[in-house]
Amino acid sequence: MESSLSQLSSLSPGELRALCRDGQFTGPTAGLARGYVQANLILLPQEYAFDFLLFCQRNPKPCPLVEVLEPGCFEPACAPGADLRSDLPGYRIYHKGCLPEESTDVRKICDASMTGFLLGCSFSFEHALMEAGIPLRHVEQGRNVAMYTTTIPCQPAGRLHGNMVVSMRPVDAAQAALAVEVSARFPKVHGAPVHIGAPERIGVTDLAQPDFGEAVDVLPGELPLFWACGVTPQQVLQASGIPFFISHAPGKMFITDMCNV
Amino acid sequence: MESSLSQLSSLSPGELRALCRDGQFTGPTAGLARGYVQANLILLPQEYAFDFLLFCQRNPKPCPLVEVLEPGCFEPACAPGADLRSDLPGYRIYHKGCLPEESTDVRKICDASMTGFLLGCSFSFEHALMEAGIPLRHVEQGRNVAMYTTTIPCQPAGRLHGNMVVSMRPVDAAQAALAVEVSARFPKVHGAPVHIGAPERIGVTDLAQPDFGEAVDVLPGELPLFWACGVTPQQVLQASGIPFFISHAPGKMFITDMCNV
User: Fold this and answer.
1) What is the ipTM of this complex?
2) What is the pLDDT of residue A85?
3) Mutate to test the interface with B, among A48, A54, A67, A119 (most CBs of B within 10 A)
4) Can you give the pTM of this predicted structure?
């Protein structure tokens, strides 16, 4: 596995997508194709595409648009030759009232009305934070970032409404302002934090019990910094009763040909 | 007229919108409600709303979104109590194959499918350019800015396609970089120029013959600076054969309650 990961690390975005397409790679994409933008995926029926695009336009922090495709088009401009229905390591399929199913290929269930949205993911700004000398505990500990549902309402759009999901990273108080400054430079990947300290003010009652991902300790002298999280759209689509949509599986992103800047 | 204009200048956005609604003001809005954002308007049937929102998302320089409303909703968040169908001094109504008609009220022709888009207009960055000490000839001469169709293709979106329209402002060569720097700070109102000098490179063969607005001289030592222009969406919707849409009449913008920043 260790050698396999090191082999994977040297592959280009296109090579990794081809492995996904052939079912040979189904793992998480963190740390792969370094230097390239990775994106969250939402595929939903055309009937809901305007509402969702409007939702993203009104809520750019949790839903930063990387690319939106025409209904029935699955080859994004940011990755020529790719197919959004097969080139991710894993998908989640949501039917209203059911637990989401996992799959590695959704070609058979995507008709010509399905509309693809690629949204910025936090890997880009995490890289920038580490470059700026801000350690990230969940990376050091090899865990998923801790994520929490909040009481912060998103701006509703058409039939879509719901609260924001945030990710939390503990930052030394002396570096908190720098962390804001650095992440604010990346408006296409969630931008600056939405909240600092005082988790109870956004409805987070116990940092040790995240709603998604894994808890990490907040040490003395550190502040919890909360960023808008890309899990928000899945939660909002479910909360709004959308009958059918597809997302990437957690941690299994779409790897684009675009370079991080 | 002079005293009327000076009386108008002291009115708030809400007072000006009320005069429009009552048919008492039907003139251009340049110079009115100083300090407040003015916006271009597009109203179109829901059937085309996703394509147009996608077009704006892909072409933010000519189509910088200020606000998008739900179909059938005409009271924008940026101006509570306003009605987009009556609170502009003038409208243009476009039916495919016909010359546009002018009107001062479109309430009767807007059904519940009509979807409103407010787009940034250049007044905000023109104010910032003048504050930075860059004189604007068309303002000094009391003319409309010169606008030109170009050969620069916009990114198509669904059924929408067409070339960019640009506005031209001559700037002293010594101030050209400053003009770029200042306008780049306003991505919500067209941002930095799309082209500097060499008009023939973007298909503009004669600066003295603008396609819209009025020509101004480019003096020795000056460069023509070209910015993406808010006339682009009207041109694109017409070029794409959209059967019916409404825009603001030239120079007759929607005055919001938002302050310029």
Assistant:
1) 0.83
2) 98
3) A54
4) 0.89
